Amino acid sequence: MKKLFFAALLTALAINVSAQNNVPAEAPQLEFALQLKVTLGEAFSINNTQHGRRTVIPITGGTFEGPQLKGTIINGGADYQLANADGRTELEAIYCIKTDDGTYIHVRNRGIIANGKDADGKPSFYFRAAPQFEAPADSKYGWLNNSLFVCAPTFSSDFKGIVLNVWRVK
Questions:
Q1: Computed over its alpha carbons, how large is the radius of gyration of the chain?
Q2: pTM attached to this predicted model
Q3: CB burial class (10 A; 0-12, 13-18, 19+) of residue 105?
Q4: I want to staple 30 with a disulfide (CB 3.0 to 4.6 A). Which of 9, 113, 124, 167 is the partner?
């Protein structure tokens, strides 16, 4: 009798789970995490590699600030970009930041830049990335290790570099 009860319970759970799979989940929300103002050095390129055009842009410093952290960007990182002939560029920026209280955090930011045309044939520009943070787990910045982030640039003629706005996916 117990076996029959558990079999019926498992069947009911399986039916309930499959019914729930047809209902879309609520879309994730975003919350602002920080803004990075990254200063850049002179870029150089390696043309026509087997993978496309490789461009390296040195990261020379800058600042960052958000509701839970603030500090400087450490000189010595770089943004490694790989562009193809279709106007698509993959990027991977690797660098470190240092909070105002002296905590170092490693950043690896991967993304896509795409120039193309929208459905109406008008020129389009897409630039999004997903930074990953490696902070000391036992620090007040440990929350950075356990969240997903997305970022988008802001372009300004007043700042010689790139400004990245970063949101945490809730």
A1: 22
A2: 0.82
A3: buried
A4: 167
